């Protein structure tokens, strides 16, 4: 008997034992693995698809039958697949120690990360190849999504959507699996991540400063794809699909008889292989979704899905057909623009019609689709000019961010189509905070009169905004401000008041009160730098008030945070020195991109600037948010102060570093 035969049987036995143990580990820790996959998968899949894909990723983690090469090498004598019974429930931080669990987890991680990887040759308009693989489970007629969390969970989900898969994986492995940085780097390297160290560094910035709170949120129902809620899919749309499927089946029979003609390049109905031809059922004007006029008052989802179809050409199938075909396959004559981060791909299913009418010499059509986009098509009524096609993201739009869309824009201004729940509209100038708003005329179809555009260059001597008030059928006495930053969706402006002594931290509120308008009068011109960057909302946080040396007058410190539709934020820290003019522009002392500062996940801020007193002497000023208990200056000037503000004599060009101590411990460096 050859000497290698017993070893071969041992290897086979070990492989079989390893696969059995891997299967046992998968079954025992299935909820943990599915949650990990759910967090790592691209949020752009949508919650329904992400739930199903997370389950599919875990269920495909075991090797295929007969695939010995990919089986786990687990010693046969070790039978335990995780912690002792009850340990995981008693301590959610304890990670299963058996090699079989680690092997399955690595397979899950690799598969989840693959959903974001595209080969260089892969078309950018298509999802990653892994996302196109058919897999179980499959659900028909229902939409699945985890139980909704609160505002904090939503903010964390948006923060995760702003980073790539390796960063989400590093974040989840630390907070869900309890791995240290070296363990995370090793596991990411095993999952073929190009730069594990960079992913770990970027993940460390997520959830700060309350990492324990972020950990609790990751373990909440918001991120649990094993405990889901169900809703029916769109019933009317489902009926349309069934009818379209029946028509498609009949066409398939007919197409079989035309196969020879198709192969010969016939240009009949069966020979259209263009995107518009493939998507013919989706692009049929008769299949467009239309919402009932009063649905907005009888639904808990007050966003673009509640908008009815309005305008005088909503039954013009020729216009609607041209708009849909241009969306599916824009000809060269059509100018296409997109909000940053918005996919300009054809619709996956018949979109919802919002508006079709003639405005300012153009026929305009507005759609909303299941990918949370608003699409505007406009063609000139006369002349030789080409049509325009504009795309904008509308993820998680609400009463305010889903309240208006630009329907027409000229060199002088823009007209807006207002949501059906808007009861009152006015315009005002942010640089004139004491001037009351003026009524804004709105036509029967919801289109406003032209609102002047903020000046893009030159002198900043006016900043027009629209102030809207929701119907009391939605919420009582709810007024809010929107401003036009050059995109389809206007930007929502909010305000956080100065910290009060002995009071809890305050939350953003509408920027319609006197203090909010005064702060925005000093900072409105800084909005110019945000134009065209896909900004969803901008919040002015008055994080500190400081008594200045040599006179005791007060100055304010404001953190202006812009949040984009795609997730990342930008921060401008501004110093509001005393001024005789209520519209004197503030001084921008810090500008930071892609940061969590001045948000739920970046609650502490420290900033500094040089300031000249009336006597001619120069000072370095520093100010921090409410949790700052002391500030220290080092470098060309030295000094320290207890509390959230500091003033130190220093030369005009002194190079000074500021650090602050925090109430709960730790230090904070000044933002630049």
Please outline what is shown here.
This protein is α+β, with helices and mostly antiparallel strands.
Structure commentary:
This protein is of the alpha+beta class. Helix content is 26%, strand content 25%. The chain is built from 15 helices and 27 strands. The strands form 6 sheets. Strands 10, 11, 13, 14, 15, 16, 17, 18, 19 and 20 form a 10-stranded mixed sheet that branches. A 5-stranded mixed sheet has the order 3-7-6-5-4, covered by helices on one side. It has a 4-stranded antiparallel sheet with strand order 24-23-26-27, with no helix packed on it. Helix 1 packs across helix 5. The N terminus is likely disordered.
């Amino acid at each position: 008997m050859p000497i290698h035969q017993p070893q071969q049987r041992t290897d086979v036995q070990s492989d079989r034992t390893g696969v059995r143990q891997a299967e046992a580990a998968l079954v025992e820790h299935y909820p943990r693995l599915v949650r990990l996959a759910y967090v790592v998968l691209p949020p752009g899949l949508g919650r329904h698809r992400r739930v199903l894909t997370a389950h599919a990723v875990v269920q495909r983690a075991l090797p295929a039958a007969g695939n010995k090469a990919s089986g786990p090498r687990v010693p046969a004598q070790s039978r335990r697949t995780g912690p002792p019974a009850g340990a995981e429930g008693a301590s959610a931080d304890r990670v299963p120690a058996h090699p079989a669990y680690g092997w399955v987890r690595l397979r899950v991680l690799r598969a989840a990360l693959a959903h974001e990887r595209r080969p260089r040759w892969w078309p950018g308009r298509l999802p990653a190849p892994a996302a196109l693989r058919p897999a179980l489970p499959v659900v028909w007629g229902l939409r699945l999504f985890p139980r909704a969390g609160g505002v904090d969970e939503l903010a964390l989900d948006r923060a995760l959507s702003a980073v790539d898969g390796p960063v989400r994986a590093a974040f989840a492995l630390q907070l869900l699996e309890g791995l240290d940085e070296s363990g995370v780097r090793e596991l990411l390297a095993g999952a073929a991540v190009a730069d594990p160290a960079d992913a770990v560094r970027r993940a460390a910035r997520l959830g700060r400063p309350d990492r324990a709170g972020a950990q609790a949120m990751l373990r909440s129902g918001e991120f649990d794809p094993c405990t889901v809620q169900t809703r029916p899919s769109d019933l009317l749309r489902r009926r349309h699909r069934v009818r379209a499927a029946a028509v498609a089946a009949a066409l398939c029979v007919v197409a079989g008889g035309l196969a020879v003609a198709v192969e010969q390049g016939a240009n009949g109905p069966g020979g259209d292989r263009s995107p518009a031809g493939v998507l013919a059922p989706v692009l049929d004007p008769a299949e467009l979704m239309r919402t009932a006029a009063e649905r907005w008052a009888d639904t808990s989802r007050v966003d673009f899905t509640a908008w009815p179809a309005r305008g005088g050409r909503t039954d013009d199938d020729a216009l609607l057909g041209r708009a849909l075909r241009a969306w599916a396959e824009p000809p060269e004559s059509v100018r296409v623009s997109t909000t940053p981060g918005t996919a300009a791909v054809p619709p996956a299913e018949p979109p919802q019609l919002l508006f079709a009418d003639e405005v300012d010499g153009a026929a305009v059509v507005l759609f909303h689709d299941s990918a949370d986009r608003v699409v505007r098509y406009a063609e000139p009524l006369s002349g030789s000019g080409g049509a325009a096609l504009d795309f904008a993201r509308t993820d998680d739009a609400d009463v305010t961010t889903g309240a208006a869309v630009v329907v027409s824009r000229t060199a002088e201004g823009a007209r807006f189509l207002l949501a059906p729940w808007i009861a009152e509209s006015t315009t005002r100038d942010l640089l004139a905070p004491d001037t009351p708003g003026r009524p804004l005329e709105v036509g029967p179809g919801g289109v406003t009169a032209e609102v002047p555009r903020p000046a893009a260059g030159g002198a900043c001597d006016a900043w027009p905004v629209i102030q809207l008030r929701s119907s009391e059928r939605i919420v009582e006495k709810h007024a809010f401000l929107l401003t036009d930053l050059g995109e389809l969706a206007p930007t929502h402006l909010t305000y956080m008041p100065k910290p009060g002594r002995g009071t809890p931290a305050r939350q953003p509120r509408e920027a319609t009160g006197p203090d909010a308008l005064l702060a925005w009068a000093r900072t409105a011109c800084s909005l110019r730098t945000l134009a065209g960057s896909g900004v969803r909302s901008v919040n002015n946080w008055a994080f500190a008030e400081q008594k200045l040396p040599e006179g005791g007058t007060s100055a304010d410190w404001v953190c202006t945070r812009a949040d984009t539709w795609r997730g990342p934020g930008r921060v401008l820290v501004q110093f509001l020195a005393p001024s005789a003019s209520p519209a004197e522009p503030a001084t921008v002392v810090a500008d930071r991109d892609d940061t969590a500062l001045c948000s739920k996940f970046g609650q502490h801020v420290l900033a500094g600037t040089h300031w000249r007193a009336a006597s001619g002497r120069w000072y370095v000023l520093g100010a921090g948010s409410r949790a700052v208990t002391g500030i220290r200056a080092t470098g060309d000037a030295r000094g320290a102060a207890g509390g959230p503000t500091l003033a130190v004599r220093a030369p005009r060009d002194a190079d000074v570093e500021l650090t602050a101590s925090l109430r709960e411990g730790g230090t904070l460096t000044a933002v630049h």
